[in-house]
Amino acid sequence: MSAAEPAGPWHLALVGNPNSGKTALFNALTGSRQKVANYPGVTVERKSGVFQTPGGRSVHLLDLPGTYSLRARSPDEQVTRDAVLGHLAGETAPDMLLCVADATNLRIALRLVLELKRVGRPLMLALNMIDIAKKRGFEFDLDRLSAELGVPVVTSTAVRRGGIEALVARMDTLIADPPVAPGEQAWAPPSSAELRATQREADRILAAAVKVPGRPDTLTGRLDSVLLHPVFGIVILLAVLFVMFQAVFTWATPVMDLIKAGFEALGAQVQARLPEGLLQSFIQNGVIAGVGSVIVFLPQIVILFFFILMLEDLGYLARAAFLMDRIMGGAGLHGRAFIPLLSSFACAIPGIMATRVIDNRRDRLTTILVAPLMTCSARIPVYVLIISAFIPDQQVLGWISLQGLVMFGLYAVGIASALLVSFVAKRLFWRDHPTEPFMLELPDYKLPQPKSILIGLYTKAMMFLKRAGTTIFSMMVLIWFLASFPRPPEGATEPDINYSLASIIGHALEPLTAPIGFDWHINVALVPGMAAREVAVAALGTVYAIEGGTEAAEKIGATLAQNWSLATALALLAWYIFAPQCASTLAVIRRETGSWRWMAVSFGYMLALAYLAALVTYNVARMLGAG
Amino acid sequence: MADVFPDVQACVDLQASVSPLPLGAARRGFCGRIDAIAVNGHAVGLSAGELESRLLELGFVEGARVEILHEGSFGRDPIAVRVNDATIALRRREAMAILVS
């Protein structure tokens, strides 16, 4: 629809620098009436919403990714450029652009305004966070600013009640009498000489219309002198991360237990009410267990994103990237990859979702590739089972527990291989692409707004449930199918799974897995283990016909100790460091990268590493007499 | 903490005593103005023109006032630079293209 149809909604696009408070303004304008989706084919979030003006017109608002220029260096910025120019497929060309600028940091923003004028669309500038600017002693001559720029200027405060009234009221006048477009579309990628000239012009306008206080924000300065201190800065960052990590692990546990218990109770109800058979098994083990295995991750995701959104809004995430850049950079990772990788210790799913804080697509993909190598909490039950069954409970050097040492070693190998793989991936996949320089604005600290955090959490949670839910769920059903068909013959003596496709696959794989010491029992357990790694523990119990599932862990351990050699046990541990044994993670990789190819690459390289690690471990252990 | 923010007077003193040098070689507390953006082999990966454009877009334009506020913990890299009224973090390698005095 266009401006020529007066009854249709008015299309407004929000453009602005990163950290301009654009998203907060978007949230203030649209509230919960917003939709978050992906642009087709790219991993760029598309956020849109609707609001009503006092005059009763409905305005369609599109929040575009933050940018410093229309020169478009990343897929995010390409979306912004194409949407602004009206070239974006499937998107209505905006009737007007609303450029959002942080009133305390106008210099770079005014250059963007001057660049946007060349697009030839009606344009308005919103000086956002005007309350903070005035408090800090900024003085604005709005008429002069508007006259010099040649565009209407309004002030706004996204976070205060009434802070956007002036903006919304102005919208009505502009809809009734649209501002004349500054001219024809004349935008072309600016040369460096043009960039210099526009910045000089922006500096001139800024000097003429805005009185800037002599000193920078003293609170930010004082906080940074501690938070960016070469020693204390790192210590505080580690402390923040420790608290976050603890919270994801411990706060989530009671809720996760509750969800698990809820779904188990539901499954038990089904078992009690439905006649035994295929339908019962499908609903109980396929549908309910499948849905449950997805929803159980939700508490961890919500807690993790609570921290990430708080730290992001506070302005600390950029500082964390600054502090960690040197360490991460050595392995070819971006400073911002630190938090997603750390989150992956809890679970790779929230970790992979958190890679959205990395702007550059290639840096993001590298991080997604290595995130599953961080030892997630679902591996712990498997590690614990095998370690306690095979590693003697004794002390090394008098005080170090051998079992603990093995556990630590498994974590360490995971971290080391993640750094190594990213180092290799950078050179293998992105050989022809330049390394992104680390250049990042460190915004002034701001108190996070509860409303923005809540909206952010809600959209992240819905995104996870909707997108991952569908794929994860279908994989769960597939795995159930493999473990249940064909049905055991009449008078079968062995567990059902031993007659299923999973068992056929397990037997078929035996020649392949013999060199790494896995017999068909292990292979069979690995199939349902695809659903979630810890399921392999219960599955091992099932194939060895032990009643009681995970609760019987000790019994399973004893059985394993009788059936396996130490070399096999060690090989399985080595396998699990790398094994791509989690359908949910693969589903999220597929969703977040928007491509089957990257999912296949992840699966393939991890499978290869797992096999190699198990092969080396098994044979070295046998040579040392553990066969 | 006081030394983190050299006051205006300290800045002027430093400025008078320092001859033109790349920002990437300057230490914390350095204050000065940008003389030129000159990308000569500093653009590892990016083309020279691309690095120049990115620096310009972040406000590193001739005449702008710069001050190094913070240095990273390892190898004093990256650096946090005050450019007029914004703070930008970048690596020293890229900052070598910014000539200051």
Automatic annotation (TrEMBL), chain A:
This is Fe(2+) transporter FeoB. Pfam families: FeoB_C, FeoB_N, Gate. The keyword DNA-binding does not apply. It is a multi-pass membrane protein. One of its GO terms (cellular component) is plasma membrane. The chain crosses the membrane at residues 227-252, 287-311, 331-353, 365-391, 397-421, 464-483, 564-589, 601-621. Keywords: Cell inner membrane, Cell membrane, GTP-binding, Ion transport, Iron, Iron transport, Membrane, Nucleotide-binding, Transmembrane, Transmembrane helix, Transport. GO terms for molecular function: ferrous iron transmembrane transporter activity; GTP binding. InterPro entries: Fe2_transport_prot_B_C, FeoB_GTPase, G_FEOB_dom, Gate_dom, GTP-bd, P-loop_NTPase. The keyword GTP-binding applies. PANTHER family: FE(2+) TRANSPORTER FEOB (PTHR43185:SF1), FERROUS IRON TRANSPORT PROTEIN B (PTHR43185). Residues 9-177 form the FeoB-type G domain. It is found in: Cell inner membrane. Its main location: membrane.
Automatic annotation (TrEMBL), chain B:
One of its GO terms (molecular function) is transition metal ion binding. Residues 21-101 form the Ferrous iron transporter FeoA-like domain. The keyword Iron applies. This is Ferrous iron transport protein A. It comes from Rhodoplanes roseus. It comes from the Bacteria. Pfam families: FeoA. InterPro entries: Fe-transptr_FeoA-like, FeoA, FeoA_core_dom, Transcriptional_repressor_C. SUPFAM superfamilies: C-terminal domain of transcriptional repressors (SSF50037).
